[in-house]
């Protein structure tokens, strides 16, 4: 069995390769470390989901693998949702938050069903009913 430190090194290398593949560059080492931890948790979720063999589909690592579920939802999920106080505070206090946002662009991204489906596949929550419901809303 491989040592925990060896597994950690393998995962760090995997994260580096993922960063290169998706052109991800972080602001500093602290941000990189935080994103690595999220990446690691998401990869574990993906691998556990796939190894369980309970679904007719598998999940995969993609451009969103370094985002926490709450970040992804706040950025890409369609529909208006009132954020909880903790999320709202983190979004408002983010040092990288723009001083203004062009809502026309944000609405286009928020309504992109492909991003939502990619996230749901990553989270293992796609159901036939949800997909049909989305299609009905689009029609």
TrEMBL record:
Residues 115-139 have a biased composition (Basic and acidic residues). It comes from Asparagus officinalis (Garden asparagus). Coiled coil: none annotated. Residues 15-72 form the Cathepsin propeptide inhibitor domain. InterPro entries: Papain-like_cys_pep_sf, Prot_inhib_I29. This is Cathepsin propeptide inhibitor domain-containing protein. Residues 91-100 have a biased composition (Low complexity). Residues 91-139 are annotated as: Disordered. Pfam families: Inhibitor_I29 (PF08246).
């Amino acid at each position: 069995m491989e040592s925990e430190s060896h597994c950690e090194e393998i995962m760090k290398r995997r994260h580096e390769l993922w960063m290169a593949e998706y052109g991800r560059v972080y602001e500093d080492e602290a941000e990189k470390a935080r994103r690595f931890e999220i990446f690691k948790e998401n990869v574990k979720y993906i691998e556990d989901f796939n190894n369980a063999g309970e679904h007719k589909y598998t999940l995969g690592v993609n451009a969103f693998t370094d985002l926490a579920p709450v970040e992804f939802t706040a950025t890409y999920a369609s529909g208006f949702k009132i954020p909880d106080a903790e999320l709202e505070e983190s979004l408002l206090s983010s040092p990288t938050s723009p001083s203004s946002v062009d809502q026309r662009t944000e609405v286009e991204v928020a309504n992109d069903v492909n991003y939502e489906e990619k996230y749901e596949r990553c989270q293992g929550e796609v159901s036939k009913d949800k997909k049909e419901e989305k299609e009905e809303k689009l029609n």
